[in-house]
Amino acid sequence: MATNNNRVLSIDVECVATSYTHEDRSPCSVAIVDDQCQIIFSSLIKPKEKVVSDLYILTGLHIKDLEQAPSLEEVLNQIYPFFDSTTIIVGQSPKNDLKWLKLEKGVHYSVVIDLSDWFKSYNARYRSMSHHSLAHEAWTLLNIDLNATNGHLATQDAKAAMQLYIKYKDDEAGKQNACSRLLNTQPRITPARAHNYNYEGVCLAGYYKQMCRCNRPSLVND
Ligand SMILES: [Zn+2]
């Protein structure tokens, strides 16, 4: 049982699609990484709902890979002991991850650190805030290619998030510098973009309003 006060954990959840909008998702894998960048938990998750696409280009998983996986409830029972009311959670736009894992403030964590807020910056060209993807942050700031494998592994994403946290948590000037590097570096082509933000009929533009064809609200923070 975890009882460390103020333990910092990064989390990442990957999802398959249960219907065709960018909101219709069900968790298929989860990883938790500690502040030593060690993977302390990872598991596949068997979706309860019918899956319309495994989103292979994003998840690297096929539906059959999930057949023997534990249910979400079973996984949650395994992960809750890692969290307590003092846990600090780090992630890239972790709002949805928190929702999938049913993590509650005051019970499972005290503070959430959202890296997409750390590295956002005002983009004069579009007259709006630019949020970057974790893949762009990892490539530009850590020289790690999260798109190198087929699909994002939750373990690799959670590790990269923790590395970014460790690298910049006590370096405000470095963070400012990182923001301008991110803004001035052309993002590489992501799997979603390579498929024009639509895979097997499923909208992949949850974080890219301009390409969304399903008309559900954007997942980007305001
Ligand atoms: Zn959409």
Automatic annotation (TrEMBL):
GO terms for molecular function: exonuclease activity; nucleic acid binding. The keyword Nuclease applies. Keywords: Hydrolase, Nuclease. One of its GO terms (cellular component) is nucleus. Pfam families: RNase_T (PF00929). The keyword Transmembrane does not apply. Residues 7-174 form the Exonuclease domain. PANTHER family: C3H1-TYPE DOMAIN-CONTAINING PROTEIN, RNA EXONUCLEASE REXO1 / RECO3 FAMILY MEMBER-RELATED. This is Exonuclease domain-containing protein.
